[in-house]
Amino acid sequence: MNASVPAVETRQRADVPSNVIELERLSLTVDRKSGEPLEILRDVTLEIGQGEFVCVVGPSGCGKSTILNAVAGISLAGRWSGGVRVYGEESRTFDSRIGYMVQHDTLLPWRTARENVALGGQLSGRSGVDADKLLAQVGLGGFEKSYPHQLSGGMRKRAQLARILAQNTSTILMDEPFGALDYLTKIEMQQLLLQQVGEEKSVLFVTHDLTEAITLADRIIVIGPRPGTVVDVVPVNLPRPRRHDEVIDDPQFRILYDRLWSQLKH
Ligand SMILES: Nc1ncnc2c1ncn2[C@@H]1O[C@H](COP(=O)(O)OP(=O)(O)OP(=O)(O)O)[C@@H](O)[C@H]1O
After folding, report:
1. How far apart are the first and last CA of the chain?
2. pLDDT 10s digits, 63-92
3. Residues near 203 by beta carbon (within 8 Å), at least 6 away in sequence
4. Which residues form the ABC transporter domain (predicted)?
5. 227: in domain
6. Is the CB of 242 under 6 A from ligand 1?
7. Is 264 in the pocket of ligand 1 (CB under 6 A)?
8. Reduced to 3 states, what is the DSSP secondary structure of residue 43?
9. The domain that contains 131 carries what CATH number?
């Protein structure tokens, strides 16, 4: 790993709404063990506006996590071109304005739920984070002293969400955070996430689940099979606040789903 993603050239963009994240023609080729080159990303251009919820969908291996990692400043070693800009500045290392919730369970097993959530505040240099209040907000009131092994998978996700909220970053990256959850728990977590991020935070959310993307996103970016490149950008104009059952009953849902599916089925 290195942090060698080149920066996007700074441009005057007075006529464009402020974007928190911009990728411009981001491309990456790595070398396989055999020495053969492997092109992972090709000319990926996208942006996330202030307060926007953007989902990224695409087939397995198309580079979705690689894109999130590049934004987070934890890039694969390889030949990069194009660039990443975070809050208008070149991105080379992790930016403290960004929180990152990865797919796997990252709760520290030796810390209670309360201590794990408090860690989110400590990581951001925030003292006085009310971990118990955040745990209550995500439905974990009464489990403050529980250790991760005493919580179900869904409860651990709630605790991780509370920890990200404790960081109070204005932008959150989420890599399939609910991918391993059962259907009902996943829907509960989606509702909880929408409530908690509101319209202030910007979110870049990777998922395989097209219904999840439509439920959450203002815009869905479809990445095609490797080398990953943007093949479609789909605005989602469903009214907010959104509820899963209302979303899937909306006539626009089928149209959106079919458009996404037509890009992804092979
Ligand atoms: N450390 C690495 N070294 C070399 N190639 C890698 C490395 N990590 C990932 N890759 C390759 O980069 C490509 C993109 O991987 P990435 O994890 O970004 O895809 P993804 O779209 O997130 O996949 P999934 O949906 O299955 O999680 C894959 O083809 C993978 O084989």
Report:
1. 32
2. 999 999 999 988 778 899 999 999 888 877
3. 48, 52, 53, 54, 171, 172, 173, 174, 197, 216
4. 21-250
5. yes
6. no
7. no
8. strand
9. 3.40.50.300
